[in-house]
């Protein structure tokens, strides 16, 4: 059996977000649309590396965004959850989205939109940070290996593209 270890490297992710946030904040006139497009780039890059067993982790992805004038991204219904915990996971997914909608609404302004994304599955962080496990993912082409730390790697790989999406939608003040 391969060695695996759960080392939650929260500081790596926090450092990335501190630096990324600093760069985003430096983009004067950043727009809600640019931030939404940036997270679309991220989700498209991360999704192929997401481990799939029942598909519940992938189905738990959410994006909540808000600016002073209102929420421009409809709250996702979420893909269908599967298995014996499907109803509980769907209910939890809705609770998570509602909580983050309220947080975004409380913090956002027209000049400083807020976008929050992630997974609502309560095991997402554990699976993401579990290193050394060969996650398998069934695709139309067959079985492939999924990636450990797939979301963090996508953020690193697509950082410049995400910043460009925000920059090209920035308004000149």
Mean pLDDT across residues: 81
Coarse shape? globular
Q: What is the first-to-last residue Cα distance?
A: 58 Å
Share of β-strand residues: 5-15%
If you compute it from the alpha carbons, what radius of gyration comes out, rounded to the nearest whole angstrom? 17 Å
Descriptive keywords:
alpha+beta, single chain, 173 residues, two-stranded antiparallel sheet, globular
Q: How is this structure best described in words?
A:
Strand 5 and strand 6 (142-145) form a beta hairpin. Helix content is 47%, strand content 14%. Helix 2 packs across helix 6 and helix 2 runs antiparallel to helix 7 (159-168). The N and C termini lie far apart (58 Å). It is globular, with a radius of gyration of 17 Å. The chain is an alpha+beta fold and 173 residues long. It has a two-stranded antiparallel sheet. A two-stranded antiparallel ribbon has the order 2-3. A two-stranded antiparallel sheet has the order 5-6. The protein has 7 helices and 6 strands; from the N terminus they run βαααβαβαβββαα. The longest helix is centred in the middle third of the chain and has 22 residues, at 86-107.
Give the topology.
Blueprint: E1 5-6, H1 10-26, H2 32-46, H3 56-59, E2 61-66, H4 86-107, E3 114-119, H5 124-129, E4 130-131, E5 136-139, E6 142-145, H6 150-157, H7 159-168
Antiparallel strand pairs: 1-4, 2-3, 5-6
Helix pairs in contact: 2-6, 2-7
Quick structural gist:
With 173 residues, this protein is an alpha+beta fold.
